[in-house]
Amino acid sequence: MSMFLDTAKIQVKAGKGGDGMVAFRREKYVPNGGPWGGDGGRGGDVIFVVDEGLRTLMDFRYNRHFKAQSGEKGMTKGMHGRGAEDLIVRVPQGTTVRDAETGKVITDLIEHGQRFIVAHGGRGGRGNIRFATPKNPAPEISENGEPGQERELLLELKVLADVGLVGFPSVGKSTLLSVITSAKPKIGAYHFTTIVPNLGMVRTQSGESFAVADLPGLIEGASQGVGLGTQFLRHIERTRVILHVIDMSASEGRDPYEDYLAINKELESYNLRLMERPQIIVANKMDMPDSAENLKEFKKKLAANYDEFEELPQIFPISSLTKQGLATLLDVTAELLDKTPEFLLYEESDMEDEAYYGFDEEAPAFEISRDDDATWVLSGDKLEKLFTMTNFDRDESIMKFSRQLRGMGVDEALRARGAKDGDLVRIGKFEFEFVD
What we know:
Layout: E1 7-13, E2 46-50, H1 59-62, E3 65-67, E4 87-91, E5 95-99, E6 105-109, E7 115-119, E8 150-157, E9 163-166, H2 173-180, E10 198-203, E11 209-214, E12 241-247, H3 256-270, E13 279-284, H4 291-304, E14 314-317, H5 326-338, E15 367-370, E16 376-379, H6 381-388, H7 395-408, H8 410-416, E17 424-427, E18 430-433
Parallel strand pairs: 1-3, 2-4, 9-11, 9-12, 12-13, 13-14, 16-17
Antiparallel strand pairs: 1-8, 2-7, 5-6, 5-8, 10-11, 15-16, 17-18
């Protein structure tokens, strides 16, 4: 089984804030005492950090749940609880993070050491020292900590390479990569020898250097799942130049020009923007019989499909076996890279809106629905957060929560919907009677 893994679905949960404390001063010679409960500590964030030493998402195959620690509870003497440490999760360069529910791109992590908070920890709850007022100098009120953000994420690895090698199986992509770089891909005389992307660094005679990726499994019908399908084509999306390798000897009994058209059709079917990248046609296996004649025929067919004012793609005859023509090919590729800009990988519509961790002012504070057992059900982010942060062990906290519901207009909304005295109202799993 291959140890290369380039997609993963994981769940992350930031730490809950620590609960605030209800406490009172009990000191000799201090008249009347007073509230002395401290605030809870902040929950830990879940942070992705790029590690250039990682090459695959294999670490996420067996560990799919990441949970940061909760903050410490508030203490007496007005002392705050300690904030929790952030959970650091290391990911390889080129990892795209998406929200599993919406499919939107949250971030694209490409630089070594780049950090991004994928789940924010909850703030600590306030202790009763925060609720003291002239009217209520000794409150028995505290807050529970805010829940940490929880979300399901899709991770997608797209290797960082300047140049991508595409072409049918057995046209010599892996052999070419092994000759021009120090990469040692497995090479055999059968289709689909390469089942993972291979990456190598090229250094030209003039001193230029660039990264090359050999992308496996692309054949006619790949966009419909034939062969290895397009599962590895995501790795070509970051490349700026495509080297289209063609077996000019036709040793597999196929027509080189038909191969060229078929591969381009699959690239276009996968992503129209791949055709924007400049392509160099690499006519490989020129040391074989019939290759020269086939190349002449290929050039004729290629020219016939272009207008006289259109610029034809560059064609470089090479032999990976004898290393014929490689130096020229690499020099031209390096020159093309110098004048080819980075391609925008994601449109604005693909990106998640800038995160806002408060409440949407335009969103309703609560919603009312009716369950099958005739219970009234209250829901909504703001209301549910108030409920979660209420300490129901203290009568004063419960009364405060009731006043907050009344201030939000919940009582009036329930009456308008037909709620009667004694009807059951549910928030989450908590039920209480409606009092008119």
